Amino acid sequence: MNPIDDLFRRLRAEKRPAFMPFVTAGDPDLAFTRDLLPAVAEAGADLIEVGFPFSDPIADGPVIQASYTRALAHGLKLADVFGTLREVTAAPGWATPAVAMASYSLMFRKGPAAFIDAATAAGLSGAVVPDLPVEEAEELAKLAADRGFKLILLVTPTTSPQRAERVVKACGGFVYVVSVVGITGERDRMPPGLRDLLARLRTMTDLPLCVGFGVSRPEHVRELREIADGVIVGSAVVKRLEAAGADRAAGLAGVRQLVGELSAAVRPGG
Q1: What is the CATH number of the domain that holds 14?
Q2: Number of domains in the chain
Q3: Is the distance from CB of 108 to CB of 14 less than 8 angstroms?
C-alpha cells in the first residue's frame, strides 16, 4: 500500500485529520533541508510537502516565491534535490510520507516517467502538480498509477462542479482543496464558503480532502479539523525560516515550535 493511503486509513480510524507542512527544498541550501525534514517530522508532521523550486511559479505567494528564488540562486539542480531526499528518507527510523510540490514544467523537461521514477527512488509517495490542467493529466495519471505513485491535483473555489468531478477522478492519495481564490499566503480567517465546497466534493469522491492556502494559525487548524481530512500549512512555515535569517539553529527551533503548535491542533482537545 502506498504510504499516503496507509496514513489516511490510520488517521480515519483515529478520527483526526493529517497535519501537512510545506517546506522548500534547498532554502537556503540542501544541507539545511537535510536537517529540516527530520526536525519537521519529529515535531509532529503526518505528511510533508516538499516544494521543488521553479523560476515561474503560478500559484505561490511572495513568501514561497522568495524561498524558491533563494534556493535557485545557489544553482540548485533537480538531481541534487532527489539525492538529498533519498538520504533523508533512507535514514533509519524515517516513517513520514512525503510528496513533491512540482511544476509540470520540471516533469516535462526530465520526462514524466523519469521524474516519477526518480521521485519514487528518492522516497516520495506522490506529487502535487499545481499547473497541470485536468484535461491534459491523463498520461501522467496513468504513469503514476502504473507505478503506485499518487498524482494530486487542485480544486479551487472557482472550479465548476463538472470540472471538479474530472479533477477528483484523476487524483490519487488525496485531493488538494484550495481554500481561497488567489495565491498562497497567510490570511486572518478561513473563507465562509469552504465548508460547502468540501461538502460538494464529498459527494464526488472518497479520497481524503486536504485544505491548503491561507492556513497559518492553530485556530485555523481547529476550525478545519472537523471538516477536512488534512490541513496544509506552507507560507507560515517558510516565513518562520526566513525570519531566522542566517541563524540556522534559530530557524530549526522556530519551525519545530510552529509545527508542534499546529500539529497539536489537529488532535481533539489540542
Answers
A1: 3.20.20.70
A2: 1
A3: no
Q: What is the DSSP letter of 181?
A: S
Query: Using one digit for the tens of pLDDT, what is the confidence trace for 140-156?
Result: 999 999 999 999 999 99
Which residues are identified as catalytic?
Answer: 49, 60
Angle at which helices 194-202 and 161-170 pack, to 10 degrees?
A: 60
The CA distance from 215 to 230, in Å, is 11
Q: Are 23 and 48 in contact (CB under 8 A)?
A: yes
Per-residue model confidence (pLDDT) at position 62: 82
Q: What's the grid cell of residue 253?
A: 527551533
Q: How far apart are CA 139 and CA 129, in angstroms?
A: 13
CA distance 267 to 45: 12
- Alpha carbon dihedral 213, 217, 220, 221, in 10-degree steps, equals 90
Residue 209 and residue 230 in contact, taking contact as beta carbons nearer than 8 Å = yes
- Is the pLDDT reported for residue 104 higher than 50? yes
Beta strands 48-51; 154-155: pairing state: unpaired
Question: Rounded to the nearest 5 degrees, what angle is found at the Cα of 144, between the Cα atoms of 141 and 149?
Answer: 130
Domain contains 204: yes
